[in-house]
Known about the structure:
The structure holds 3 protein chains of 3 kinds. By secondary structure, chain A is an all-alpha fold. Chain A has helices at about 15-25, 30-55, 70-95, 105-125, 150-185, 190-195, 205-240, 250-275, 285-315, 320-330, 335-345, 355-360, 360-385, 405-425, 430-440. Chain A has a single domain, classed as Formate dehydrogenase/DMSO reductase domain (Formate dehydrogenase/DMSO reductase fold). The model of chain A has no long low-confidence stretch (mean pLDDT about 90). Chain B is built from 8 helices and 10 strands. In chain B, about 25% of the residues lie in helices and about 15% in strands. The mean pLDDT of chain B is about 90. By secondary structure, chain B is of the alpha+beta class. The termini of chain B are far apart. Chain C folds into 2 domains: about 1-50 and about 135-170, Alpha-Beta Plaits (2-Layer Sandwich), CATH 3.30.70; about 55-120, no CATH class. Helices cover about 50% and strands about 15% of the residues of chain C. Chain C has 5 helices and 4 strands. The longest helix of chain C is centred in the middle third of the chain and has 28 residues, at about 90-120. The model of chain C has no long low-confidence stretch (mean pLDDT about 85). Chains in contact: A-B, A-C, B-C. The interface of A and B includes residues 147 and 153 of A.
Amino acid sequence: MAHQQHMKSDISYREVNEDVVRTMTKSGVGYYIALFLSIAGVVFLWWLPWAYQIYTGQGVTGLQTPVFWGIYLTNFIFWIGISHSGTLLSAILFITQTPWRRSIYRSAEAMTFFSVLTAAVFVFVHMGRPWNFYWTMPYPNQRQIWLNFQSPLMFDVFAISTYMTASMIFLYFGSIPDLAAVRDRVTGWRKELYGALSLGWRGTDAEWHWLNKAYTFFAVLIIPLAVSVHSIVSWDFALSKVPGLNKTIFAPYFVVGAIYSGSAGIVTLMVILRKTLRIEKYITTNHFDKLGMLLLVMSLLWSYINVLEVFTGWYADTSFENEALKYRMFTPPYSYMFWLMIFTNTLMPLLLIFRKLRASILISLIVSLGINVGMWIERYLIITTSLPRKFLPYMWHDYSPSLTEISMTIGSFSFFVMLFLLFIKLWPSVSIYEVKEDIGIPMKKEGH
Amino acid sequence: MGKFLDKILERFKIYRIPGYYEKYDHKWTMVIDLDRCNGCEACVVACNAENNVPVVGKEECGNKRTLNWIRIERYVEGEYPNVKVKFIPIMCQHCGKAPCETACPVYATYHNQDGLNVQVYNRCVGTFTCATYCPYDVRRFNWFTYKRDEPLNQQLNPDVTVREMGVMEKCTFCIQRIRAAKDRAKDENRSIRDGEVQPACVQSCPTGAMTFGDMNDPDSKVFKLAKSQRKYKLLEELNADPSVIYLKRVMKDGSSATHEE
Amino acid sequence: MGKAVLGLFTYVDDMLAAADKLKKSGFSDVTIFSPIPLGHEIEHVLGERKNYVKYFTFLGGFTGFFVGTLLALGTAALYVLPRGGRAIFAVTPTVIISYETTILFGVFFTLMGFVLFAKLPSYKKKIYDPEVSIDSFGLLVDVSEADINDVTKTLKESGANEVKTVEEK
């Protein structure tokens, strides 16, 4: 099989180093403005409202008696979902040795780590007494009262902390050779920093061997982990008795939805990165073509499960289930959101059937943004159309988010952007050594 | 060595019993006769007074953030003048297989030896999971720090904790009264007499619609009432095994009028 | 304190040929520096390396499984709090906790294996040329004083751009 080229083949090794170091060291005014805005967003839209909420109580939210979970949990699932493609996709593509992985996986993995971080903060945001957060961690104590390991939330604690640790290790150890390469090219404080971070990497045959072996095992371990993480997140809902939440399909539905939204997140991110970092020669339309196919497949899977939900609901015809479905599909304002979601997540991705449209950056951007809006709506609908319609009609009450909640939602996006802006300056956001692998090993004799 | 292993095996067998308890010391049960209930809400008031339940005001009531542990659900059927109103008092059902208990990550709610579903306020971190999982919507959350102006703070019941902001609370079947009765019985070296324990709602019910007692005692009033043909449990199909038993209201024409039908 | 010779190559096949030649003439202590992983290509010359990391991963997974099970069951037995009509030792939730800890410990042990075998982190000054993180492939040969010239010549003949004699610390 011919070696498949995904970038221009005339890039030299030296050029890769120079380009990546340039993305880290040279930054324009625009970068600083964006960084400033995102930090301001985090402080004023997230941390200050959060401080207000901690001081005043959860009453500042729009939550009330039947709807105890709202937009915070929506954001939690949304960010966990976004995190799903980076590391998982990177691991799968690494094991299957897919060449187009190489120039996009680093920032995709960073996306995973940052979005898990954002999601994890939302766990504490939605808690009634966040100052007791450590009570949810397993640690030995005098009272000998540990934790309820039968609780779905406990699964969450384990799954998310494992996922965060594993994806951090995966990201870090995949970058060690690149950190070493950067260390050799920079001066001043950067030299010190990358000297420490690269752990004294020299690129000897032994180091490469062990890195490759360890990395393969990380990849192998991360795939079942990622699948379990989003299943467990879905079980927060599916293990209840609430109609509309208690569904056997939820675990696969959430996993599919997570990979779907995560892949869309990658596409959006790649469009922005290649423009702002001027690395068009590494991330080509070929990558968008491949990612577009992935999006299309995930879209079809996702739509299939959605259809199933209505299908089984219609045949089972239980009053509670019917009520939840009707409320979601035909009661404004939820019906508008529902049909918008169907439009962005089922119909719009069908554009990607056409090769020409897949290769178009603009179409990719629009579709991927649409998908993420749709996926956010999906999670919002799951919570806010099931909980207000629980068993006893006397308690039915609709939920609408308060200003504090909306502000913190926007703040979380700022937080993610801030982390990412710091990342692209502090970390090689394109894998140097794997891009070089893609260019090919330099041989004097042709016909390797 | 063999003895030690036997001991472990024995413990293991005990830990494998569903629900852990082979038999509750007391299985506290409440029977509510809907035929007698006239919806006066005296129980709600009594409960508020007994259990230091904060009064939240008009606005928060509109937001469905009332904290009363017991509520009278009203259902109105038909158009005026052919209106039928039905009501049913609902409090924590103290389910034998409570969905809320498995949900709590920090053991803030568990099942005690009396068959009660216990909420530990100090342990609660406020994840809302228990309230979300509760099919009866009986769990209440302290959305704010509720202040009691002078001299209202003087009327707080010293036997009951005043709950902090950010914790979940719910009906306890007036556990402080159960404890007091148990202590008394222990001092006098006897078992608790039937009718000795009365939660505030039962005590205040003018029509005597509510009865509270120990289901383990075959001579108790609740045991006899529970044999009634009118008995049913709320949302029984969810298999939560509630401890509250309702007796159906029977209309003149013979039709029953619980809120379910 | 020994001497070593470092040759920098542009082409991998040149370097591997040189390495092969040196190995055959008795220089066993050969290290290859490269900017990219050279898995299969190197194995022909330096011989196959055993993959010990997998035992670490397995051991980690095994440990993790037991830690998870012990944590879930042991702590439940330590302070018995019955909940939800379930047994204190319930299988279903324990499986999930063990599953997660299996993976967590698997990752940690793999990491330990890597750190142990790759001898990282090491901040001591070692023989290194910054060019090998760009586009040069380095070949480091430990030699005795007498062989320096021979080895230098061999490396040059095989196509090395630059050959340096370095002091090993």
